[in-house]
Amino acid sequence: MLKLTNVSKSFGGLKAISDLTFEVRPNQFFGIIGANGAGKTTLLNLITGYTPPSEGRIEFEGMPIHGLPPYRVAHCGIGRTFQITQPFAEMSVLDNVMTGALFSRNGARRSLRQARAMCDEPLRLVGLADQAHQLAGVLTLGARKKLELARVLVTEPRLLLLDEVMGGLTPHEIDDLVETLRRVHAAGTTIVMIEHVLHAIMNLSDHVFVLNFGRELYRGTPDDVVNHPEVIAAYLGKPLTEQ
Ligand SMILES: Nc1ncnc2c1ncn2[C@@H]1O[C@H](COP(=O)(O)OP(=O)(O)OP(=O)(O)O)[C@@H](O)[C@H]1O
Ligand SMILES: [Mg+2]
């Protein structure tokens, strides 16, 4: 579904992404882990057109997408969340989600009424239905993360890319979100999830890719990854069972 071939990205002298090649298959739940600064967000920015690759090819459903602007990538059916959320602070939670519904997949234009009708389900799924009429600017960090997820779910992406969407949530909220993402995935959405909340990524992913200084360190099933000595040395610090 998504294929990267020899993708690299340099910022001046810094090689943030080095020669990455991997594929995400339809219906996969693909986890990406790596230390701060490993290049995870840069990787999402490359896929979604926020920054062009210095080298390499990126294909979605067989079509090259590298070089396309972000809105064109979104219209292909790729949705993403941002690690640093930037909701429209002066607008309500509902209106923020409606912005996603108005300009979503295939660039289809919708009426306000149609867009409004699409918002209930994502707001309910993420647990923000009760706060739909609050101003986005007063939300807690955790609620902003939920809004970020609702805003992208309303675009009905076929491929959903999540950048640390669990940051700032309480343990209880994380458990809820794990179940929500399980349902979104079961409903047919392919998911790529960057996350530092390890138990969430290990519970949800069928495949985990480990980035280290912009390079592939290891990939495999969650069990393989957490037991791999290099992953333990570079990222986990100590085996997961002892944490
Ligand atoms: N626009 C940019 N210009 C210059 N350097 C950048 C830019 N974006 C990212 N970098 C650098 O690229 C490297 C990878 O950053 P990136 O944000 O992708 O890491 P990350 O894995 O998402 O980290 P975190 O877990 O902290 O979110 C870092 O050294 C960062 O400083
Ligand atoms: Mg990041």
From TrEMBL:
<keyword id="KW-0813">Transport</keyword>
<dbReference type="InterPro" id="IPR027417">
    <property type="entry name" value="P-loop_NTPase"/>
</dbReference>
<dbReference type="Pfam" id="PF00005">
    <property type="entry name" value="ABC_tran"/>
</dbReference>
<dbReference type="InterPro" id="IPR032823">
    <property type="entry name" value="BCA_ABC_TP_C"/>
</dbReference>
<dbReference type="GO" id="GO:0016887">
    <property type="term" value="F:ATP hydrolysis activity"/>
</dbReference>
<dbReference type="InterPro" id="IPR003439">
    <property type="entry name" value="ABC_transporter-like_ATP-bd"/>
</dbReference>
<feature type="domain" description="ABC transporter">
    <location>
        <begin position="2"/>
        <end position="238"/>
    </location>
</feature>
<dbReference type="InterPro" id="IPR051120">
    <property type="entry name" value="ABC_AA/LPS_Transport"/>
</dbReference>
<keyword id="KW-0547">Nucleotide-binding</keyword>
<protein>
    <submittedName>
        <fullName>Branched-chain amino acid transport system ATP-binding protein</fullName>
    </submittedName>
</protein>
<dbReference type="InterPro" id="IPR003593">
    <property type="entry name" value="AAA+_ATPase"/>
</dbReference>
<dbReference type="GO" id="GO:0005524">
    <property type="term" value="F:ATP binding"/>
</dbReference>
<dbReference type="Pfam" id="PF12399">
    <property type="entry name" value="BCA_ABC_TP_C"/>
</dbReference>
<dbReference type="GO" id="GO:0005886">
    <property type="term" value="C:plasma membrane"/>
</dbReference>
<keyword id="KW-0067">ATP-binding</keyword>
